[in-house]
Design goal:
118 residues, 2 domains, mainly alpha
Length: 118
């Protein structure tokens, strides 16, 4: 994804280490000034507010913020996708209806994701 977005040949790109989850990525960057990782923009904003020495990077002069991701200004983001095997019904449909409703906005924000609806 990064190679394509930045128009780099990806055949030579190799990670020197893998960070895993958001917390591990934040820790890797905080401990190594040469590190670069991709993490949730919400987690990055929360870490910065806590005083963690990381710097979310702008892309194409656009700051990496929840607001810019939500408004589609930040040029690199990805949605989370819910998938079913067929047309959902019963409990699966009820869950999907709930997950797509404004009732979960507070929960989505609590886990530092960008809400679909307010």
């Amino acid at each position: 994804m990064f190679a394509r977005h930045l128009k780099l040949a990806d055949d030579g790109l190799r990670a020197s280490a893998e960070a895993g989850e958001n917390e591990a990525g934040i820790r890797a960057v905080a401990e190594n000034p040469d590190a670069i990782v991709y993490i949730s923009v919400g987690e990055a904003e929360r870490a910065v507010r806590r005083g963690t020495p990381i710097k979310p990077l702008p892309l194409q002069q656009v700051a990496s913020t929840i607001r810019n991701v939500r408004s589609n200004y930040y040029p690199l983001s990805r949605p989370l996708t819910l998938v079913t095997r067929g047309v959902p019904s019963g409990a699966a449909k009820q869950f999907l209806d709930f997950a797509m409703s404004s009732q979960v906005t507070d929960l989505i924000r609590e886990y530092s994701f960008v809400p679909y609806l307010d």
